[in-house]
Design goal:
Blueprint lengths: L5 E4 L3 H12 L4 E4 L4 H9 L3 E2 L3 H6 L3 E4 L4 H8 L5 H4 L5 E4 L5 H13 L3 E4 L2 E2 L2 H5 L3 E5 L3 H14 E6 L5 H30 L3 H8 L7 H10 L11 H17 L7 H16 L7 H10 L1
Parallel strand pairs: 1-2, 1-4, 2-3, 4-5, 5-6, 8-9
Antiparallel strand pairs: 7-8
Helix pairs in contact: 9-11, 9-12, 9-13, 9-14, 12-13
Length: about 300
């Protein structure tokens, strides 16, 4: 069967890896530049077509994929005279792979439906290295018939592909997931920094903690930097972690509840970002806590 034409907007670390995977599998891909030329140029060198606007991407595509940093970025590329909605083909499917606010997702879903398309949210788990090999976790939600149509493409990108219900469910679950993950990462980072204060070797602390039920993948990611000096086992920037936990707290507020556990992680991540460390990886939060403890 003929593969659907893919449009892709947002060639950051994750998006560029997904585009590379799609191209390796023979998909026709249309892209537009965002911020960084090198990944755009690499995709074009592999055969992608570059067009000037998001509207042009949509006009060339059966499935439009976005992998953007914020809800504001997604909305900017979706709306307006040069936006995706303005160029949609009949029955096109638009998929937001980023981590967005569920309220924004639902609003865009209604606008896409009015234009004759279908909007799905499909936030991602795992890393850009997994994306190149088609091993992402994909948390998709929205119209089931549209999901069934695009599922073969999603399975080319992901090892574990879920359909989670009504539009916005994927983003809701992803925000809960990331709140939990970033809370653990910050707690482990503080634990390593506190071991320094107490004069205990970090590796000794890890050996004891990881021998029991506390051990997790997130613990090991933080240990990779705190003990082994490798920040890239958890290739997730502090600024993005702060954004996601901030979105989680906004989601809880919209639901009329007051989150208790997110406040510590959000305070630490936001402070690290605002003091010039936003581009560092989350595992490097151990340095933030060390600086804080040292005064």
């Amino acid at each position: 069967m003929t593969k659907p034409a893919i449009g892709f907007i947002g060639l950051g670390l994750m998006g560029a890896s997904m585009v590379e995977r799609l191209q390796a599998l023979g998909y026709t891909v249309t892209i537009t530049a965002n911020r960084s030329r090198p990944r755009i140029d690499a995709a074009v060198a592999r055969g992608a077509t570059e067009v000037p606007t998001a509207r042009d991407v949509a006009a060339a595509s059966d499935i439009v994929m976005l992998c953007m940093d914020t809800s504001d970025s997604v909305e900017a590329r979706m709306r307006g005279a040069d936006g995706v909605i303005a160029g949609l083909r009949p029955d096109a499917v638009v998929i937001d792979f980023g981590t967005s606010l569920p309220g924004s997702t639902k609003a865009l879903g209604a606008e896409v439906a009015a234009a004759g398309g279908t909007y799905l949210d499909a936030p991602l788990g795992r890393t850009p290295a997994h994306a190149v090999d088609g091993l992402l976790n994909i948390m998709c939600s929205g119209d089931k018939a549209a999901f069934d149509r695009v599922e073969p493409v999603l399975k080319d990108l992901g090892e574990n592909v879920f359909h989670l219900g009504a539009l916005g469910s994927g983003h809701t679950i992803k925000l809960i997931n990331n709140f939990f993950a970033m809370t653990i990462a910050n707690a482990m980072s503080e634990a390593f920094a506190m071991s320094d204060v107490a004069g205990i070797e970090r590796d000794a602390l890890y050996s004891v903690m990881s021998a029991g039920p506390l051990r997790s993948g997130m613990m090991d990611f933080v240990k990779a930097y705190a003990v082994d000096g490798d920040p890239n086992q958890l290739a997730f920037a502090i600024k993005n972690a702060a954004k996601d936990v901030g979105y989680y707290t906004r989601m809880t507020e919209d639901a009329g509840v007051d989150s208790v556990m997110s406040k510590g992680a959000l305070t630490a991540l936001s402070d690290a970002r605002d003091t010039g460390h936003g581009e560092e990886m989350v595992g490097q939060m151990v340095d933030y806590f060390s600086r804080r403890f040292q005064g």
